[in-house]
Amino acid sequence: MRQFITIATNAFMELVRQPVFLLLMTSSAVFEIFLATPYYFAFGDEPKLVKNSTLAVMLLAGLFGAMVAYWAWFVFGKKYANDADGK
Questions:
Q1: Residues 76, 86: Cα–Cα separation, whole Å
Q2: Domain ranges, ordered by start, for the chain
Q3: What one-character-per-residue DSSP string does the chain give?
Q4: pTM of the model
Q5: What is the pLDDT of residue 27?
């Protein structure tokens, strides 16, 4: 269990070092908190509405993060791969 916590902590610190992912993580967390604060008049379905909205924000933030990571790999990864090959 201690190894898992160490790996998770190191992964989180590596994530926070990247400014785009830090911005994405904090903005999605703030928006999720915002989703839970207003009053909804949904006839008793407020918890379900908040849960579904939060899951949708998590999905979109994850998809956007994956797109940014792929774009960074596509742009910068090929440049460094060519440098490593000696071209």
A1: 16
A2: 2-85
A3: -HHHHHHHHHHHHHHHHSHHHHHHHHHHHHHHHHHHSS---STT-HHHHHHHHHHHHHHHHHHHHHHHHHHHIIIIIHHHHHHHHT-
A4: 0.69
A5: 93
